[in-house]
Specification:
alpha+beta, two-stranded antiparallel sheet, 15 strands, 28% helix, globular
């Protein structure tokens, strides 16, 4: 009687999966980065002014910071009301007191739902607004977003706010600066989508559409050296007027064919990253 075939060892199975992932990425990435880019997936049909807008923040030292991946259209009061309704809280400014409070929160694992966020810069100025949604019992892990008001009003005349949403996964020393800082999780698309879902669930969005941001990126690095990956899209949300909650789902404007194909290819790559 023949013995049944031996099952591959876990290490070998992991090696095979890693090899398969590397193969898919090695094929798909050139398609995204060279064959399909840039003409096919760059699109600004719903907001042409965004074609010349910056796509990445910078640090105080001038290093590339977190990519911009979200935009809101509404007055300052409407932005604040929408985020509060979605369960996000404003971040405190950085002072000696708030710096000590966030340190205490991280070290002693105590809640600090309004802990400050470090400054990033756009057009030479730090963020105009910053919001967060804590995870767990301390400021070690949290969802957070920074917003800058642009000088480019939307079609309805209300201000456009560009934002960078990411998830703080822990605290450590910066890979490039050596300073104590938060480190972000690499999947910044998940944070963009989570923020938009929170706003939609709170009834604060009337319309959604996307424009090209930084573009598809597999091995990006922010100012602290944290790796990130993204499909490169910025999701733009038109907020309700006056913060009035909306019961109907928002209108979703479709992407053109090129970006739609790119996003389908990216959806195959994303689980492997």
């Amino acid at each position: 009687m023949e013995s049944p075939p031996l099952e591959p060892r876990p290490a070998k199975r992991r090696l095979r999966r890693a090899g398969a992932a590397l193969f898919v990425v090695s094929i798909a990435y050139p398609v995204l980065a060279y064959l399909a880019a840039p003409a096919m997936w760059r699109h600004y049909e719903h907001h042409p002014e965004m074609a010349t807008a910056p796509k990445t923040t910078t640090t105080a030292a001038g290093l590339p910071g977190d990519p911009l991946n979200v935009g809101l259209i509404g007055t300052r009061n409407e932005v604040v009301r929408a985020l509060l309704a979605a369960g996000w809280t404003p971040a405190d400014p950085i002072t000696l007191r708030t710096s000590l409070e966030i340190a205490e929160s991280v070290l002693l694992r105590r809640p600090d739902p309004t802990a400050p966020v470090s400054p990033l810069y756009l057009w030479g100025r730090h963020q105009d607004l910053a919001f967060e949604r804590p995870v767990g019992g301390s400021a070690r892990e949290r969802h957070h977003v920074r917003f800058w008001r642009t000088d480019r009003p939307a079609r309805d005349g209300r201000p456009l706010w560009l934002g960078a949403a990411s998830f703080d996964r822990g605290v450590g020393f910066g890979h490039r600066t050596g300073q104590l800082t938060h480190h972000i999780a690499p999947d910044i698309d998940a944070e963009r989508d989570s923020l938009i879902e929170d706003l939609v669930r709170a009834g604060q969005v009337t319309r959604l559409y996307q424009v090209t941001g930084i573009g598809p990126t597999i091995r990006g690095r922010n100012g602290e050296g944290d790796p990130y990956f993204t499909d490169g899209e910025m999701t733009m949300a038109v907020l309700t007027v006056g913060g009035a909650p909306r019961t109907a789902p928002p209108e979703v404007l479709p992407n053109p064919l090129g970006p739609s194909i790119k996003n389908r290819v990216w959806a195959m790559i994303r689980p492997l990253l």
